[in-house]
Structure of Protein yippee-like:
Amino acid sequence: MGLLFVEVLPRQGDGGPAAAVLKCRRCRVDAASADAILSRDFRGRFGRAYLFDHVVNVSLGPNEDRYLMTGLHTVKDIYCSCCQQILGWRYEKAYEESEKYKEGKFILEKARMWKEAR
């Protein structure tokens, strides 16, 4: 097995209040900054979910067409790069014109996250 490289999210500000970090609930590796949440109005398999432009320390599964609450989308599940826990998914393609803004963005499920205040 090869060496695993993990990205640690930087602290925000110079001595000011630092941003909270969302981490994998199972292994506590950084996944995203709470300040980078684009929307909190999403639902996942396990309840509330958050929309992000950028996440770290994840690997992608294969493309899969999935019927979600807003219609048909092509998505890839995202897995923690350390423990392989499913954390959410990435939107690859939206078939409805009104949903195109989601393409390339990530969903992290709140139930799979642990929030660490820094």
